[in-house]
Amino acid sequence: MEGLMENTLMPGEAMSGHLATEEQPFHFTDSGLENVYLVGVRYFTAEDGRVVAEIPAVNRLMRLIAKELVFSPSSLGGAEIRFLRKRLGMKTSDYCKVLRIDVATLSRIENDKQAASNQLDSLIRMSYLLLCKDAALETQTEALKEFILAEVRRGPSKRVMKVSAGNEWSEVAEAA
Amino acid sequence: MLTEALEEAPGWKSQETFHARFHHLERGISMDDVLHALHGSWKFERPPEFNEKQWQWKYRIGAQTIEEEPLTVLVAVDTANRTFEVITRWKA
User: Fold this and answer.
1) pLDDT above 80 (res A106)
2) Are B50 and B56 in contact (CB under 8 A)?
3) Which of A4, A11, A58 sits opposite B31 (nearest CB)?
């Protein structure tokens, strides 16, 4: 059954406009994340409290949020992982094939019923960099590819540790 | 033009202004579901309607979410102000 959503604002409906400021930012829940706020956009409030925002270049905004997540030092939460998956335009079953986990596991992770392991967290970030079509991330993607390929070419690395007077240990640069 | 409006900042490549205006999304639909629907293959679910009072064309677009669930996006095109507004969406 289809139906008009109750919070719909119709064109021409009386609305009061506001500019989102740092003091009063716009809570961008439509992103799918709970902690994203926008400054500088216009938003409109209807008499009954309903709110809509006018967001220019929304794709650019979404890419920026994704980039911030990928390079965030903190572990990815469930909503953030879902956000990155949706940014890639991948449905759950396809994303699970990329990550080599089962659908139930991803569902638990995206719903914060299970934390992603550190390895999976890294894989999610790397898969985003490799699979996204964001020109602004191409340099990072290439850097990541080069890093991985250099590791593969180099093979198992040999680390040489040297002890000096006073039992101080230091790493010796590997000979070419 | 709609996809350009979603992608580019106002005024880019053109003196005209393009905006995409979105509602709070619900029922597990996020902005990316709507973007996926608009960027992907879609069809008009019914002929466009013109509102003379508001000078807007209203298009009802049938598409799919990322999870391939049916999604209807209602887009209002203001030909006078050259703006696009995603004013609502349905989900079967």
Assistant:
1) yes
2) yes
3) A58
- What is this structure's pTM? 0.77
Q: How far is B61 from chain A (nearest CA, A)?
A: 13
Pairwise CA distance, residues A15 & A30, whole Å? 20
- The residue of chain A nearest to residue B28, with distances taken between CA atoms, is A32
Using the beta-carbon criterion (under 8 Å), do B54 and A90 form an inter-chain contact? no
| A62·B35 Cβ contact <8 A | yes
Look up tokens 């590819």; give the residue.
Answer: A145
Per residue in B29-88, pLDDT (tens digit) is 888 998 898 888 889 888 888 888 777 888 888 999 999 988 888 888 877 777 777 766
Task: Look at residue A111 and tell me whether its pLDDT is greater than 90.
Answer: yes
**What 3-state class would DSSP assign to A15?**
strand
If you search the block for the tokens 């390079």, which residue do you land on? Answer: A71
* Contact in structure between A164 and A158 (CB atoms under 8 Å): no
Tokens (6 digits) for A18: 């506001």
- Residue A137 has a pLDDT of 78
Q: Looking at this predicted complex, what is its ipTM?
A: 0.79
Chain B residue with CA closest to A89: the answer is B66
Mean pLDDT computed over B5-21: 62
Q: Which pair of tokens denotes residue A91? A: 């449905």
A142 by Cβ neighbours in 10 Å (0-12 / 13-18 / 19+) ranks as exposed
Q: CB–CB of B31 and A30 under 8 A?
A: yes
Phi, psi of A82 (to 5 degrees): -60, -40
Q: Is B32 exposed, middle or buried (0-12, 13-18, 19+ CB in 10 A)?
A: buried
- Partner-chain contact A7 B23, CB within 8 Å: yes
CB atoms within 10 A of CB A75: 12
Residue A56 pLDDT level (bands cut at 50, 70, 90): confident
